[in-house]
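Hey, I'm writing a tutorial for new members on how sequence and structure tokens pair up, and I'd like a real worked example in the thread rather than a made-up one. If someone can provide the structure for the chain below, I'll link this post from the tutorial.
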Amino acid sequence: VLFRSAGVGPRRSAALARAVALGAAVGFYDGVLGPGTGTFLILGLVLLLKFDFLHASAQAKVVNLATNLGALAYFVPAGHAVLGLGLLLGAANLVGGYVGARMAIARGTGFIRVVYLMVVTALIVKVGADTLAPLLR
């Protein structure tokens, strides 16, 4: 799915190189920090691989699911997971994903772009506030 429109030859090689670099950067960020990984992945898919916001958002959901399953495979056997809270959050995520996907399909890429910009703004404000809070105490 990722390279459906990439064609063959040098164009495909360049797209593959950009996709690998994006995967490495987003994977590193997800492993070290985590919050906003899907947002950064969407941004990379749109800017580097020329996805529209709707398809970039769908791909980011699949990647986020895979990374979350990987984290579960590591942390559950190690006894570092709060399963009750995780199940509650997972259920809320499923409901939100279902509602969000239906809205995205119904309203299209323009709607996704607006919601994306709102989420990025909120993320920047939150991370900025968390960073500055210890300095202001």
